[in-house]
Each structure stands twice: as C-alpha cells, then as structure tokens.
Specification:
Blueprint (H helix, E strand, L loop, with lengths): L3 H12 L25 E6 L9 E6 L4 E3 L2 H6 L7 E7 L2 E6 L4 E6 L5 E5 L5 E8 L2 E6 L4 E6 L4 E7 L7 E4 L2 E4 L12 E6 L4 E7 L4 E7 L2 E9 L4 E9 L5 E6 L11 E3 L5 E4 L2 E5 L6 E6 L5 E6 L6 E5 L6 E7 L5 E9 L1 E6 L1
Length: 351
C-alpha cells in the first residue's frame, strides 16, 4: 500500500468512528487444522498494519464454508511480514509479495511450506513469471522493474522505468506496465511495454493519468485511470487495441471521488466490475453503467470474482487497525454472507 501512514491520517479524519455493521455475519466456522491442501477455495490477502509486521494470508474453503486464518504463520511458525501487497501462483508455487518488508516469500501453494525468499527489493508491488527461469517485479520506489532469477531466487538486474510501476499484463513477449501517479512527481499519461526477451522498454502509449488497475481481455487492454485533480484532468476506463494501439474511452469519470485503491476485474458474464465509492458493473458494448453495491460508509478496498459462480467478494478495510469486513455478493449485488478477515484485506485469489 502506498504511504499507509499518510492515508490512515486521512482515513481517521474522514471516517472517524463510522463502522458498517448491518448484515454482519460472524457465524462462519473457523478451521484450525492446516493439514488439508488449499484447493477449491479463495486465498484472502491482508496487508496488516503498516510497520507492525502482522500481514496475513487466510484461506476460505468454499466447499465446507470454513475459514482458516494465518495459514503462512501456522505452517512456518513465523510471521509473514509487513504489508502483504499481492499474490501470484504458478503451478505448485506461490509468490507472496511483501511491500514494506522488501521481499517475496516463495511457498508451496498446496501446503504453504516455505521454499525460499527473494530479497534485495526496494518496495515490491506485483510479481509476474516470464518463463521458468525469469520473473518481473514492479516497485513503488525503485524506478524500475526488478528481474528475478527463478533458479536461485536472486535479483539479476533492473529495467529502468520513469517512476512507480504497478500492475503488469503479459501479451506474449510484451509486458505492459501501469504507471500510477506518485504525488511528488509530474503526472504522466503513458503506459509502457517491456520486451521480455531483451529486458528493455520497447514502446509507450498515452492512455491517461494515474493508472491504478489494468487487465487484458482478448485483444483489448483495459486501464483504470483516476485522473489528476490538480490539473482537472478527469479519469476513466480506457481501452487499447494491443494490435493497432488504437485508444478509446469506455467510460469517463466526472469527479475525483475514489477509494484509496480502486480495483477493476473482468467478470465471466463479459462485464467490467470496478470500485469507485461503491461497486459498479459496466457493459462494454453498450456503455451501460450500473452501481450494484452502495458504499454506505464503508471503505471498499479489495475486490474479487469467483470464476465458477460469478460471485463478488468485497472487503471493507475500515480503519486499517481492526479486522476487515468481507462480503460475498451475487453478480447483481445481492448480499450472500459476510465475515471478518485480516487487517487491511486488499485482494482475493481463487484457487
């Protein structure tokens, strides 16, 4: 998370003691035995409190409707680290990216047993495997993409970039990189593509300012841009044809009223779902935009979509001091259940 301490100050001023308690259901059973494989469920990623080293990874068993908390700690008898940013699974290996701990924990995805640690990073954000021997790691402060050797889990080089790098999308030998706006820098509208063979920047395209989320669907790259309030450059969801580089706006935003970290995902029903002071669905073909979940004083911080049943998983981070509220909705926004997660739950990974 970017400058959590700074954002928390804002959080306390804005939210004060507003806590959402309606429809809360804490009857979800907790499973304490970590002997089973972590399959047919959802990994719940929780950042923890900044500088407190209490990030956590939990697993919700969808078949038995049971929650297993702190599965990394209970398996390896040590803390996961500080600010759990993201997770990436390839085969039987999972990569757990710890932003403020400047490391990546490499674990067996089936039982959470530690395999290795990737250290020497500055402030890692997202991991992407390129091939069996190489991976890229985006970074908040490093002004570059780290190149990781997956044979010995060491940093073998850096690809210079013009600032903060965030989500990455793999398009063959092209890796497109989102560039969010860092408040100390001049805003830039460009996204960049890296040639993964030569480990170098190959191209850039002007999309929009402050790119906070990105995804690929067929031949189209979708980029969620927040815009820049100081220059009154509005944001929106932008679509680029990866073959022709043609850019068009799918939806424009008329204000700068966002959550701290907006999310965007493609649903199996073909609609885009994203957070912006609530949860919206967007029909790409018609441009029909529907607010399906009202925020109602909650800070929607994480968003996930179950690829099997299409249900939405949304987290309310509250104040980053207490456990998050987690909600499961239908794709139409009907609440199914809710329960407590970890502190600062920011994402979900369905396995």
């Amino acid at each position: 998370m970017l400058d959590q301490a700074f954002y928390r100050q804002i959080t306390f001023l804005v939210w004060a003691i507003l806590l959402f308690s309606a429809c809360q259901d804490d009857t979800v059973p907790h499973h304490t035995d970590n002997s089973s494989n972590f399959e047919n469920g959802v990994f719940i990623i929780s950042e923890g409190q900044f500088n407190n080293g209490n990030a956590s990874l939990s697993f919700f068993d969808l078949e038995n409707q049971e929650l297993q908390e702190n599965i990394f700690r209970s398996t390896n008898n040590r803390s996961l680290g500080d600010v759990f940013q993201s997770m990436y699974i390839s085969g039987d290996i999972a990569y757990l990216v710890l932003n403020n701990s400047s490391k990546i924990e490499v674990v067996n995805a089936k039982n959470m047993e530690s395999v290795a640690q990737i250290e020497g990073l500055t402030s890692p954000r997202y991991f992407m495997k390129i091939d069996d021997e190489k991976a890229y790691v985006s970074d908040l402060y490093a002004d570059g993409i780290s190149v990781v050797n997956l044979v010995d889990f060491t940093i073998q080089g850096t690809i210079p970039m013009p600032g903060w790098t965030e989500q990455m999308v793999d398009v063959g030998t092209e890796i497109w990189v989102a560039m969010p706006w860092f408040y100390q820098d001049e805003p830039s509208p460009y996204i960049y593509t890296i040639d993964s063979y030569f480990n170098s920047v190959a191209d850039s395209v002007a999309i929009g300012v402050d790119q906070v989320a990105m995804l690929l669907d067929n031949d189209f790259l979708y980029v969620y841009c927040k815009g820049h309030p100081n220059t009154d450059v509005k944001g929106g969801i932008i679509r680029m044809n990866i073959q022709t580089r043609e850019v068009n706006t799918v939806v424009s935003f008329e204000d700068f009223d966002f959550n701290f970290a907006p999310r965007m995902l493609m649903h199996p029903n073909g609609k885009l779902y994203f957070t912006k002071k609530g949860v919206f669905s967007l029909e790409i073909g018609t441009g029909n935009l529907t607010k399906i979940i009202e925020e109602n004083g909650r800070d929607f911080y994480g968003l996930g979509i179950n690829p099997v049943d299409g249900h939405l998983w949304v987290s309310d981070a509250i104040d980053f001091q207490q456990k998050s509220n987690i909600f499961e909705y239908t794709e139409e926004g009907v609440l199914i259940q809710s329960f407590k997660g970890g502190i600062g739950t920011n994402n979900f990974y369905f396995n």
